[in-house]
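can u do me a favor
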């Protein structure tokens, strides 16, 4: 059965004090509301990872992610952070290929493939992001764009590595805009992603991969999105910065799970 996942990407927000405070609030609330079918993940900024790791340590089902990584294990890369460094801080997951990394920092599919392999080689779990821009959607190119992003990265993995990978579909036009994909649009794109996996690895493999929706998911639309057959959770941005909103989204996932 596919894992259900609620991941919070805090982006470049919070001070050290605020980050630890939010992590503490979430640790208490997740501990009070455990669910063995849901993984809850938080992704603070790099400087706060070690502190947040200590804060959430020992809370079942609550994990720590980094928002990015460098593909090299070490070396003269000023300002960069390697996967072994992240692992030494208690990180278990790494977000790769977020649209902001692609658009603002020019990250290519080739670079993202290197990062993907680096994360897997270190025994961490990648959360690999794919998604189309507004222009690409208006040109009806979304399926072609997703196929290209998948075929140059995810579809090059071994079967075993695929099983350890989480995919996040994030329509670029819905990130931080307050405009989210409709449940129909989300399901359509998640089904396309799952079909690409099925065509490469087979149906059984495709049914084992968790695919998250990312793009202005909030407490009011989460239940409708999570009710879609192929949507296994959310990669949450702005709504993850308040514990009440983030937990409301997690509760929405709990509400749609079958007993």
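np, heres the sequence
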């Amino acid at each position: 059965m596919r894992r259900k996942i609620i991941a919070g990407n805090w982006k470049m927000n919070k001070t050290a004090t605020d980050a630890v405070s939010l992590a503490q609030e979430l640790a208490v609330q997740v501990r009070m509301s455990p669910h063995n079918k849901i993984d809850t993940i938080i992704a603070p900024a790099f400087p706060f990872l070690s502190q947040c790791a200590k804060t959430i340590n020992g809370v079942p089902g609550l994990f720590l992610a980094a928002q990015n990584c460098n593909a090299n294990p070490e070396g003269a890369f000023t300002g960069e952070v390697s996967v072994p460094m992240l692992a030494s801080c208690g990180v278990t997951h790494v977000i790769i290929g977020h649209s902001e990394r692609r658009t603002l920092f020019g990250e290519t599919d080739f670079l993202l493939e290197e990062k993907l392999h680096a994360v897997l080689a270190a025994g961490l779990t990648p959360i690999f992001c794919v998604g189309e821009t507004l222009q690409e959607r208006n040109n009806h190119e979304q399926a072609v764009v997703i196929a290209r992003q998948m075929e140059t990265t995810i579809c090059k993995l071994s079967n075993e590595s695929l099983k350890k990978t989480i995919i996040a579909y994030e329509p670029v036009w819905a990130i931080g805009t307050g405009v989210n994909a409709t449940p129909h649009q989300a399901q359509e794109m998640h089904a396309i992603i799952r079909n690409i996996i099925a065509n490469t690895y087979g149906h059984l493999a495709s049914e084992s991969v968790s695919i998250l929706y990312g793009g202005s998911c909030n407490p009011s639309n989460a239940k409708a999105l999570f009710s879609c057959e192929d949507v296994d959770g959310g990669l949450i941005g702005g709504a993850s910065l308040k514990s009440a909103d983030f937990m409301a989204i997690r509760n929405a996932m709990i509400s749609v799970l079958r007993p």
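Residues 35 and 254 are 8 Å apart (CA to CA). hope that helps!!
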